[in-house]
Design brief:
Layout lengths: L14 E9 L2 E10 L2 E11 L6 H12 L8 E4 L6 H12 L4 E3 L4 H39 L8 E9 L2 E10 L1
Parallel strand pairs: 1-4, 4-5
Antiparallel strand pairs: 1-2, 2-3, 6-7
């Protein structure tokens, strides 16, 4: 109850904080949204890429796609500078109709927030990879129990219901 919320950044009313964490061919991009000086939460995006793709290339491509249909805030704080930082800055500024700054903070409160976003991205990626590993193990066990030659790539569940022969309803759930 008494904990301090460190996501608040002095002198920044509108900003997105974008951080990347990597593990082999998987990455997690974590975005914190600050509007009107208040934290409006965060979101994780999980990406697959070649293991040797630089973080600067991944984050640059992500930013270009993420803001393709949304207006960027005036400040975007980054854990890693995108490969084409100047080009992205110009494109985002034109699309938004106001100057957009892409910054990689090196000290102070902004750096602390960027480091916190990196930590969140690392934790989210670890959870995501552990969940994927657990799912693969469960599917291997299911294949063994059912005598399947390999784990299923798609599972479909169907249910048909009715109330005393009337109001028939059918449903399907698919997991892949």
């Amino acid at each position: 109850i008494q904990a301090n919320q460190d996501i608040n950044i002095p002198n920044v009313r509108d900003a997105d904080i974008i951080a990347i964490a990597r593990s082999g061919e998987r990455s997690c991009i974590q975005i914190f949204f600050v509007r009107g000086g208040s934290n409006y939460g965060n979101r994780s995006y999980f990406l697959t890429h070649l293991a040797d793709t630089p973080a600067t290339e991944i984050i640059g491509a992500f930013i270009g796609q993420f803001y393709g249909d949304k207006e960027p805030p005036a400040v975007i704080l980054l854990s890693d500078a995108p490969k084409d930082r100047d080009l992205l800055t110009e494109a985002l500024s034109r699309a938004a109709g106001h100057h957009v700054r892409l910054q990689c903070p090196e000290r102070g409160a902004r750096r602390k927030v960027a480091a916190m976003a990196v930590k969140n991205a690392e934790e989210a990626l670890a959870r995501h990879l552990a969940n994927a590993s657990s799912q693969k193990r469960l599917l291997r066990e299911l294949a063994a129990a059912l005598g399947l030659p390999q784990p299923p790539g798609r599972i479909e569940i169907y249910d048909n219901s009715h109330i005393q022969g009337k109001h028939a309803v059918g449903g399907m759930v698919v997991a892949g």
